[in-house]
Design goal:
Layout (H helix, E strand, L loop, with lengths): L9 H7 L6 E4 L2 E2 L5 E2 L2 H14 L2 E5 L23 E4 L11 E4 L1 H4 L15 H16 L2 H22 L3 E7 L2 E6 L3 H10 L5 E4 L2 E4 L7 H17 L6
Parallel strand pairs: 1-4, 4-5
Antiparallel strand pairs: 2-3, 5-6, 7-8, 8-10, 9-10
Helix pairs in contact: 5-7
The chain binds pyridoxal-5'-phosphate.
GO molecular function: identical protein binding; pyridoxal phosphate binding; transaminase activity
Cofactor: pyridoxal 5'-phosphate
Keywords: Aminotransferase, Pyridoxal phosphate, Transferase
């Protein structure tokens, strides 16, 4: 079975992993959990603890992978290579497909058909995934995500410095969270009325996952709507 430990708690991880542990599974940046990046210390410790105990490190990059954070894989920011990496969502550019990446060593344990699903490996999904990967690379979308991630984060931080309802900004690249001092769902609704779709991943956190093609004009527009929504929710400009 699984044992859960608090995220970014190296001591808890050390205590939980033994030579009987098969694997440690984590998201380098938690998405649905509230846009929490792993600390560099935690991800590196996870890698070292797994190596020392003979466990595999599995990174779920279904949400944070494929250019979202400004690198092909989020784990690259940490200088860590997981034994197994899970991909999905963006991989097919909208077409349903997932993939499991493994190091050469771990891949030796699989033979064709061992890790199967009825439609797994079908040619249409494989073609969609290849085309998506080609587009990410050839259209410079990962570099765009890195640049726009910095631009968007700075704009959110500026908004936060100006507005009394903002508690902080979290995230990496184009995977950003805005922490509020009021229920995030109220602001989701106010944004929606003004033409901006965002969602609340926690009671107090809005999550932004814009397309990797986003540009500065769209970010400016989104931040202007957000500012108006916060004002409508009673926020005061400092
Ligand atoms: C990090 C992460 N892993 C896995 C999944 C599950 O993906 P799917 O719905 O494609 O099975 C999700 C879906 O939100 C996710 O965010």
């Amino acid at each position: 079975g699984f044992r859960y430990i608090p995220f970014n708690d190296v001591a808890a991880l050390e205590a939980a992993v033994t030579d009987k542990t098969a694997a440690v599974l984590l998201e380098p940046i938690q998405g649905e959990g509230g846009v929490y990046p792993a600390s560099e210390e935690f991800l590196r410790a996870a890698h070292a603890i797994c190596r020392d105990q003979g466990a595999l490190l599995i990174c779920d990059e279904v949400q944070c992978g494929l250019g979202r954070t400004g690198r092909l894989l989020a784990q690259e920011h940490y200088g860590v290579t997981a034994d197994i990496t899970c991909l999905g969502k963006a991989l097919g550019g909208g077409f349903p497909v997932g993939a499991v990446l493994a190091t050469e060593e771990v891949a030796q344990a699989f033979a064709p058909g061992d890790h199967a699903s009825t439609f797994g490996g079908n040619p249409l999904a494989a073609a969609a995934a290849l085309e998506t990967l080609r587009t990410l690379e050839e259209e410079g979308l990962i570099a765009n995500a890195a640049r726009m991630g910095v631009y968007f984060r700075e704009a959110l931080e500026k908004l936060g410095a100006e507005n009394s309802l903002v508690a902080g900004v979290r995230g990496l690249g184009l995977m950003l969270g805005l922490v509020l001092k009021i229920p995030a769902k109220r602001v989701v609704a106010l944004c929606q009325e003004r033409g901006l779709l965002v969602n609340a991943v926690k009671e107090d956190t809005l999550r932004f996952l814009p397309p990797l093609t986003v540009g500065t004009a769209e970010i400016d527009r989104a931040v202007a709507i957000l500012r108006a929504a916060l004002t409508a929710a009673g926020g005061k400009e400092n």
